Amino acid sequence: xxxxxxxxxxxxxxxxxxxxxxxxxxxxxxxxxxxxxxxxxxxxxxxxxxxxxxxxxxxxxxxxxxxxxxxxxxxxxxxxxxxxxxxxxxxxxxxxxxxxxxxxxxxxxxxxxxxxxxxxxxxxxxxxxxxxxxxxxxxxxxxxxxxxxxxxxxxxxxxxxxxxxxxxxxxxxxxxxxxxxxxxxxxxxxxxxxxxxxxxxxxxxxxxxxxxxxxx
Length: 216
Prior knowledge:
By secondary structure, the protein is mostly helical. It has one domain (5-215): TorD-like. It has nine helices and no strands. It has helices at residues 5-22, 31-42, 50-61, 65-78, 89-93, 102-113, 129-148, 152-184, 188-215. Helix 1 runs antiparallel to helix 2. The radius of gyration is 17 Å and the shape is globular. It starts with a helix and ends with a helix. The mean pLDDT is 89.
């Protein structure tokens, strides 16, 4: 059965969240493929994404790019001392240098309500940027599955969960997080990633709110 326009867009949104999450893990050999796929996925959703996506690809193509990105990744997100752009929601929602706060516990509880848990051996916190992006991928994928089965009630439920998560968590801190990256990053890759992530999350938040208003 052919996909509807709404289903095609939802599939692209889910894919974009997963690919964005990939970019916030330590840079490896598969990064170029993820960025190329991200640019292609966002092409029909967010035309302004073309610039930052091309900027990211160009940065990867440069000689010694992967080594440079690994160094910058550590400076921005890992430390070991001062993190230039802490990748944890609690830092932005509960005050500078606050980690594992109440908002972190809320995110963990949301995961568990959906039957999710962090993989054994995964050392990051539940409100790490990559984890929250992957959670949005999960919710969008569940909405798509419900839509394909014709279960409108379940589809609306997952749409509301996405809107709620953006409104309470990811959508509230993505702006200041992106600003931190833009202020500190030296590579075009991470500057482009910050712009792309912020613009996509804000666009999707607006899109979801409008859809829910239209269905009420």
